[in-house]
Amino acid sequence: MVGTMVGTTVGTMVGTNENYKRKVTATAHTKQQTTNMAAATVRAPLLASELDTTSKRPKDTLCVPDGFTYIKCLAKGAQARVHLLARSHDGTLVVLKTPRVERSGIAEEYEFMKQIHNDAKHANVLAPLEYFADTESMLLEWAPSDVFTLVQKTAGPMEEALLKTMAVEVQRGLKFIHNLKIIHMDVKPENLLYFVDALGVKSFKVADFGLSCEVATVLEEKPGSPTYAPPEVFFPGPLTVTDSIDMFSFGVTLYVASTGMLPWLAVSRRDAGFMHFWSLSENVRFARVPPSVVPFIKSTLCLDPSERNWPEVNNASQTVVQSLPVMLEEKLDFL
After folding, report:
1. Cα-Cα-Cα-Cα dihedral sign, residues 241, 187, 24, 268
2. Which of 1, 47, 53, 85 is deepest in the core (most CB within 10 A)?
3. Rounded to whole angstroms, what are the CA distances from 234 to 214, 220, 251, 329?
4. Residue ranges of the domains in the chain?
């Protein structure tokens, strides 16, 4: 798994430390984050073994829409399952996301996706194909892969040309939803889907809006994935949602795709990787990142939310916070 691969690499870089793997968030946050990370992710299967043809339908009730043939269950989460179906008349593969609990959030996710694509579909944001209110299930495009899988398969960084395509297209997708006052809240490699069309054109789409919310929403319970979430998510007290949250997560994701390594396991002074990363000079910190991608990471992977911004695609001159900002020193003592 990429998490194991990159964790081992970073562990080797900063030295073995059993405490490196311990939980770093407050107990109040940990239970919610564990639930969020367990939620089903709409993406292609990670390994060929996951397409085991002997797999059968899940034991819980599943209503396959008319006109589709059931193939197998792709993923099981605490709140939902993801199934692979094929259109009966032409064999086109699609994904069916179904609830496992009464309040699975699929209806809310569909509403966000419908709002995003209200006027026209955006090429870099996954669109719902159909929603079934009676079963609270949703049909989605099927993607053959995602960024997590691409990094896993190479056991290292993605190829630079593909990496640059991903950086540009994911930024476009996120900027589009931000202009609609929607914040994704869980940007990470697993939620960035990879497509190749009949002509061989490669593209990426932002997916999984299960944790999304409107900008300026005030959250008491804070969602997201600890490795990819920005520092302010872990500060005491309520969190006011802004687009800078997605920017930081995008920066971490791009760093992972560029280097094949996680920069840290958690945002905390107790995490050796986190402290090591921010102790490095800018040149050393991004030495393994391809030059064409550096501007995207520099402008988004900043500890101070006010420093984060979307770079101009062709502008290689961007600034970056080079050390732990003084304004965050006291708050980081909590982490």
Report:
1. negative
2. 85
3. 19, 11, 18, 14
4. 2-39+145-332, 48-141
Q: What share of the chain is helix, strand, coil (3-state, %, to 5)?
A: 35, 15, 45
Domains 2-39+145-332 and 48-141 share a fold: no
Encoding tokens for residue 81?
Answer: 């399952």
Assigned CATH class of 2-39+145-332 = mainly alpha
Tokens of 282: 């800018």
Residues 26, 239 contacting (CB under 8 angstroms): no
Helices (H), the chain: 2-14, 27-38, 106-116, 147-154, 160-179, 243-259, 272-279, 282-285, 294-300, 326-332
pLDDT per position as a tens digit, 278-314: 999 989 999 999 999 999 999 999 999 999 999 986 5
Give the CA angle between residues 289, 296, 3 to the nearest 5°.
55
In order, the DSSP letters of 154-210 are HTSPPPHHHHHHHHHHHHHHHHHHHHTTEE-S--SGGGEEEEE-TT--EEEEE---T
CATH of domain 48-141: 3.30.200.20
Please give the chain's pLDDT, 335 residues, in tens. 333 334 333 333 333 333 323 332 333 333 333 333 333 333 333 322 333 444 455 545 688 999 999 999 998 888 889 999 999 999 999 999 999 888 788 999 999 999 999 877 899 999 999 999 999 999 999 999 999 999 999 988 999 999 999 999 999 999 999 999 999 999 999 999 999 999 999 999 999 999 999 999 999 998 889 899 999 999 999 999 999 999 999 999 999 999 999 999 998 899 999 999 999 998 999 999 999 999 999 999 999 999 999 998 653 333 333 344 544 555 555 56
- How many Å apart are CA 228 and CA 251, to the nearest integer? 9
